[in-house]
């Protein structure tokens, strides 16, 4: 059972947890408009553009979520040397995120996802990105910047979007540095190569990712989820798996225990960035010293708030506490 007063006392405290986010830095562009007719040139809607916005995505969205939750945040990653990189840097600095460990790589562009919106409906997404693995010299620059950042952090969070940053070499070196420094590593994974996460403290796949990572045809029951999770726990030597289950909520699995946290959302408008919100919330509450089961429960409330809004949004402590009030 969550003790709301305890949460309020911890989150209102003067000490902010220091969290280091390492991952794929992206931007989300939204082109907002209306669509009331079909083009005479092709059977597609004509969007009359009213507004455009650019928000932080990927690891940058995780960092923004952590700042809004009242953490002290540093971020490490790569961007291109381009206009979108400048916008991302500006927005991160506005959120008081330390950007000193970001490396600009002239061989790539900053990942940009453009969504064409008609009202609250997404009609089309256009991606502009380079996803090749970082070069050895870029890896060396990142590791040099990370040494001091890891020592200062209360927890380290790896946000992998499979865009070329978190290679096997770089990821394993980061985890080794963290373990040497006694820092917990949390991973939001992507792709099939989970061996690169070996030694992390916690990994957060969704149900589909868990099935793919363990070559399981389908996960349709708690028993099947538990069986697949145990395989992945053994493979990666991690202590915990947090499995997000979309409309079914969240599951927490260790070698000896299994917990289920049913979904809290009443309305779902947009799932964009919801995984980042769960990941950021988990990291924040664990860095505060809150028990992992309570952290999962609170992250579940944060996810409910995120999916009730359009676009990648940062959830606040007050919103989480308010939703807790409604469920008491």
From TrEMBL:
Its EC number is 2.7.1.167. Gene3D superfamilies: 3.40.1190.20. Residues 18-314 form the Carbohydrate kinase PfkB domain. The keyword Kinase applies. InterPro entries: PfkB_dom, RfaE_dom_I, Ribokinase-like. Pfam families: PfkB. The keyword Nucleotide-binding does not apply. It comes from the Bacteria. GO terms for molecular function: heptose 7-phosphate kinase activity. NCBIfam families: rfaE_dom_I. This is D-beta-D-heptose 7-phosphate kinase. It comes from Mycovorax composti. The gene is rfaE.
């Amino acid at each position: 059972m969550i003790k709301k007063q305890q949460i309020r006392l911890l989150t209102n405290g003067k000490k902010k947890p220091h969290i280091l986010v390492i991952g794929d830095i992206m931007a989300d562009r939204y082109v907002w408009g209306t669509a009331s007719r079909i083009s005479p040139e092709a059977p597609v809607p004509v969007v009359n553009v009213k507004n455009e916005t650019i928000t932080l995505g990927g690891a940058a969205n995780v960092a923004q979520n952590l700042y809004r939750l009242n953490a002290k945040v540093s971020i490490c990653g790569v961007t291109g040397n381009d206009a979108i990189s400048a916008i991302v840097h500006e927005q991160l600095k506005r959120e008081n995120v330390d950007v000193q460990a970001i490396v600009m790589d002239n061989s790539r562009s900053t990942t940009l996802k453009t969504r064409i919106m008609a009202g609250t409906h997404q009609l089309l997404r256009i991606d502009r990105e380079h996803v090749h693995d970082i070069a050895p010299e870029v890896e060396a620059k990142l590791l040099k910047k990370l040494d001091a950042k890891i020592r200062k952090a209360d927890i380290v969070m790896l946000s992998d979007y499979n865009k070329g940053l978190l290679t096997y070499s770089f990821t394993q070196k980061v985890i080794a540095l963290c373990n040497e420094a006694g820092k917990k590593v949390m991973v939001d994974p992507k792709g099939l190569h989970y061996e690169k996460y070996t030694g992390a403290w916690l990994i957060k796949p969704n149900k589909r990712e868990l099935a793919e990572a363990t070559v399981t045809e389908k996960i349709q029951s708690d028993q099947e989820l538990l069986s697949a999770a145990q395989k992945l726990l053994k493979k990666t030597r991690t202590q915990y798996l947090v499995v997000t289950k979309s409309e079914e909520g969240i599951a927490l699995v260790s070698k000896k225990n299994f917990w289920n946290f049913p979904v809290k959302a009443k309305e779902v408008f947009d799932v964009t960035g919801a995984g980042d919100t769960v990941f950021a919330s988990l990291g924040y509450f664990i860095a505060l010293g809150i028990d992992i089961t309570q952290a999962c429960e609170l992250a579940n409330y944060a996810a409910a708030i995120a999916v009730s809004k359009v676009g990648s949004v940062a959830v606040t402590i007050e919103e989480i506490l308010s939703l807790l009030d409604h469920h008491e």
